[in-house]
Structure formats: C-alpha cells, structure tokens
Design brief:
With 411 residues, the chain is mainly alpha-helical. The protein has a domain of 181 residues. The longest helix has 33 residues. The chain is globular, with a radius of gyration of 22 Å.
Amino acid sequence: MNILNDKTKKAALILMGPLGCYVAYQILFIWRYLDIEKYPLLTSIYTDGATVIETGCALIVASLGFLVVRRIGPLDEFLPSRKRLSTLAHVLIIISILVLLALSIYRVLGTLSPAYVLQEYQRYNFKATDGGAWMILAIYAALFLQLMDMYFGGVTKKNGTFLMLSILIASFSGGRGILILFALMFIVLLMFQRVSLMKFLIASSLVIASVGTSFALITDMRAPADHSKPVKVAPTDSYEDLNYNAAFISEDVLAAIKSHSIEPGAYAVEDALVTFVPRKLMPSKPISTAETRAIYPDVAKRGTNITFPLKANLLMHLGGWAFYADWIVVAICQTLMIFGIARRISAPGILGFAMLFCGIGFTLIARGGIFNARLLVIVPCIIAAYAGYRVLLRIQDGWTFGGQPPGVATK
C-alpha cells in the first residue's frame, strides 16, 4: 500500500504551513492589489526593492524550517497515548453544539423559525457576539475537544466524521476563518500518522469540499443584498474590499505613520484590558478594536471592525522599522508547529497541542496580526476543551460494556 513518506510530509509541512500560508495571503490579499495610483506608499516600497527583500526572507524561513525538521527526526511515528472518545461522547458534543447554536440564535432573533432565521441572518451574524460571545466560544471549545481526541488518540473515520459534522453545524454561527483552521488541523493530524496516500487524498478532498462549500454559503448569507452591483465606494464600505483586499489597510497605516497622525503604541493592550469583561458589567465596552478607532474612526462609530493584516499590525505597534518583522513571526510560528507535531509523538500534552494550533492557526495571525487581543480568547477555549476532554475520559473509565470502556479498541 502506498504510504506517505516522512520526507514528503516534512516538505508539505514547510510549504503549506505558516510560510506557505503567508506567501499565499500576501499574493491574494495584498500584492495583487498593488497600484501606484491607489496605494502609492505601499506600491513604491515594493517597487524600490521590498519584493527582493521579502523573497529573500521567505527563502531564509524555508531553509530554517528544513533545518529544524531534519534535526528533529521522523514526525510520523505516532502511537495513541490515550483512549479515544466513545460514540456516545461525540454524540453529546454534537448535541451541545446544537443547543449552544440554538441559544445564540434565539437570543438575537427571539425565534428558531428556519424561514425567519434565514431571512434575518445578517442581523444575527452582526449581533451574535454582542453580549453572547461566550456561546460561540463554547462551540469552538467543543471543536477543540474533538481535535484533542485526534491529537492524543489518533484520527479515525469515526472522530473525523463527527468533527466535520460539528464544523458544518458551527459554521452557521457565522464563523469562517477559524472553522477552516479546525479542518486544516484535522488534515495535518491525519497526515502525521501512518496513512495511505489514497485514504489521505480522499479524506482531504471531502474535508476541503465540505468546508469550502460551507464557507461560500455562509459568506453569501452574510453579504448585503446588493454587494454584486459595481458601485464605487470607499474600501471601508466595500464588501469586496473588506473581504479580499488588505492593501488599502497597509497603505492607510503607512500614510498615518508618515503624517504622524497616529503614533505606534500598545493598541492590543488597550483591547486586552476589556476583552474578558462582560458587556453587562461594562455597557460602554468598545465594539471595535483600538486599531480601528485610531485609523478608521468612522468605521468604529458604526460599531464594526477593520481587521489589520500582520504587517500593518506590526507597523501600528512598533513603527516603520518593523516592516519586515512579519517574517520573524512566520519563522516562530513555523517552528512552533514543527515542535507541536514532534511533541505529539514524544511528549503529548496540552502545550504541544497549543503549539501545533499556533502554527496551523497562522491564518488568523496573517489576517489579524500577532498583537491582537482577540487571539487571547483562544487560550481559555483550549484550556476548557482540555478539561472537558479529561472529564469525558474519566467518565468513560467508569462505563463498562462487556467489561471494557467504550472507545477502547480490542487487540
């Protein structure tokens, strides 16, 4: 049987991990929009040599990655370190996600009527995290729990099927980016255990097709009714620009720094101070981020956010000298991802799981920056998921069916 070999997996890890993710993000969301008339500062930087420098940085990060994986040894010698969750446990997780989603919808819309929910989906999506973010985060924690079952016990048809079902249900909450990361982590966990090429390709294709379809449907449901009409508006008011163009944000940050209309500062700290404060206790809690309020006060006034890409995020916090510091972040996340996979084999634990997700979750960093208080909410989600995972395992140990806890394979 054709088995994916370790060298192929390591090459894929470098090319499709944080490095590949960041190069793809730069091409799709920034470089293809460069125009000296629209974005003179950003475009001139790249035409004056930044393209060559960034290519060199990418090659250095790739070389560093290959050096680390060569020294770390085989990464596919995985053996389960804990029992897998039972079918009953997965069913309970699915039910919990459904209940949380229903509560979230009912809190915003006051009904669970399918026709009304679909009609008012944009309003639900806008208000879902306004005072009820804990419900969405609890759903994410449930997905993390299922991924932990795969991290410690290995990927199987059963837990893979339940995870994909959970992701598709959770997608209705309006999340897109982070749900894709859960699917990517499933693919990576499957890759770095003994698996035939055919089974891996089939599983990956099914995951990509289902999550991709879900992404497209949710994006369309979130879109304003007239978003396809070719009307010229400011990028901050354009559905297409807000979803696919990050060049205008980098340009605006560079212009603000050059004109001294803003000063680099700890904007993420300002957000972090109120991140975990319930809105009921702090009615004046800002809905938009400090970065948005500084660069786009008009957007902040309407209660929405602009997501600052990694390079713009670093410029906002550190100043113009940090233009190329994004590649240091890429190298760090790539290394963490490699060590996270290695620890799954040698010393599996919550730290290794978090390191692996840090690498896989680099899309969140590429799109929203490393100095981003919203990344902090992932930490309690992972901790809660790990606690829930250990509790479920203990409960399973108390169940006996024919003298054996469910979920334990017989030899």
